[in-house]
Write a structure and sequence with these properties.
This protein is of the alpha+beta class. The protein contains 7 helices and 7 strands, in the order αβαααββαβαβαββ. Helix content is about 35%, strand content about 25%. The two termini are about 20 Å apart.
Length: about 180
């Protein structure tokens, strides 16, 4: 757990491109659909993440979304996306937060650290967060963050049951103190 204490958590930057290439490659090789697409143009994908944070070039129906990284030195080890606003997708199945951990760094508490950092440093009001109920690691992350269970829903597109939670901002000393 000591490696988690040294993490830097912050919004994505264009200067993260070399680290983002490596992160995208590992996540794509792990079979994560988002990164299987991003691997074909990681620089363009990173630029689109930065544009989406500013509300520019949003695909139809998308909300402005800020991407945050947890970094260990120069390496991105987790990514979190915070959707700003509300629409049908956030209310019905997606929630406001999506995240993943670099496959080679799973099990170290990185997602919990990044989500806790977001609660302490970014969130000013409660948000919705969802998780495939067949994902015990994410269920533990949400529980550790104090997620308040709301309900479960069947997501026909992904053919799975999704659990929905309300996640409140937190006010306690952080593990990711540097910005």
């Amino acid at each position: 757990m000591s490696a988690v204490l040294a993490l830097q958590c912050r919004p994505a930057r264009l200067t993260d491109a070399p680290a983002y290439h490596r992160y995208v490659t590992e996540c794509a090789e792990d079979g994560q659909p988002l990164y299987q697409v991003a691997q074909f143009d990681p620089d363009g994908w990173l630029q689109s993440l930065l544009d989406h944070a500013e509300g520019r070039n949003l695909p139809s129906g998308y909300l402005p979304t800020t991407t945050y990284f947890a970094l260990d030195g120069e390496e991105i080890i987790a990514t979190l996306r915070l959707r700003h606003g509300d629409n049908e997708a956030t209310r019905q199945w997606l929630g406001h937060i999506g995240y993943e951990t670099r496959p080679s760094r799973r099990g170290e508490g990185v997602a919990r650290t990044l989500l806790g950092w977001l609660q302490r440093h970014v969130l000013s009001e409660p948000v919705l967060i969802s998780c495939d109920e067949a994902n015990p690691a994410s269920l533990k992350v949400i529980a550790a963050a104090g997620g308040q269970w709301l309900d479960r829903r069947y997501h026909a597109g992904d053919r799975c049951w999704v659990r929905f939670y309300r996640l409140a901002p937190a006010k306690r000393p952080g593990l990711c103190g540097r910005q």
